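Hey, resending since the last one bounced:
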Amino acid sequence: MRFGDCIRAIKKLRPAYRNARLLREYCERLDCALGHMHDQVDRLEKQVDRLTPQASLNLVEINIVSHCNLNCRSCSHFSPLAEEEFLPVELAELDFARLASLSCGDVRCIHIMGGEPLLHPRCCDFLRHARRHFPMSTIRLVTNGILLPSQPDSFWSCLSRNLIELSPTRYPVDIDWKYVKDKCSEYRIPFGFFNNTDIRKTMTRFTLDLTGRQDPRTSFRDCDCANNTVVLHDGRMYPCEIIPTVRHFNRYFDEEMEVTRNDSIDIYEARSMNEILSFLSKPVPFCRHCNVLNRVRGIEWETASECSPPQMSEWADY
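The structure tokens again:
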């Protein structure tokens, strides 16, 4: 083929190349649009789930202490701001019994946590009572792990006898995890880190609005905790971990974000489990203090100290 013939053949192919390029660009835009639509549909499905009463409780948290020995910045339980506070075992047992009666023991998972739960001298009593009232539930002890190597054999026996899963959060602190794992193997205790050990520990800033000007419905619909993780405290069920613990923030910084009886439900006054499940699927007044869309995830983990005390900016806009 002569050179001129080659040039003419290439010119004839130009429209095809142009059309192919346009088609490729169109497909890329379509993929982008479909991806955006998928994200929107996923978000809407989650919002519908949050506004739909569950068939049973998914996850119940019980904070047996308020304070902690690690003091993480932006802690969602406000533990660095909390004074020493121990939940009475007898009060928790009454709450366990009442919730078990209402739910017929149908709670998928229970977390015994804090603060740091191993600071409570009667930690094992909570585990025994939880298992007695919820024989079919998954029960986890959620701890930062610092005190695990110093626990006596009676602690490991308690976890084993009551089928408790040990779920420590792995922070970048020096802990003899081999010893802990060996103890779990010896006593046949299920063990699993609460967070992915291959990922550097980070924190989330929940971004409280001190003025309370957020739309409670929007905050609830977009909140990862809504109608998923609930907290049982002092005879009341709270729809998230922030509301029952924000009192520590208020006291420490002399703020007045109000928590009312309408922000939780009394499990002793509730007539049925359905009443509780219906309550948990609706926004509460305190939702106006949560700027959910401005939550900041992936904050590098660090702790507060006497030289660098907690700052209000770790939790709130002001």
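The two ends are 77 Å apart (CA to CA).

Sorry for the duplicate.
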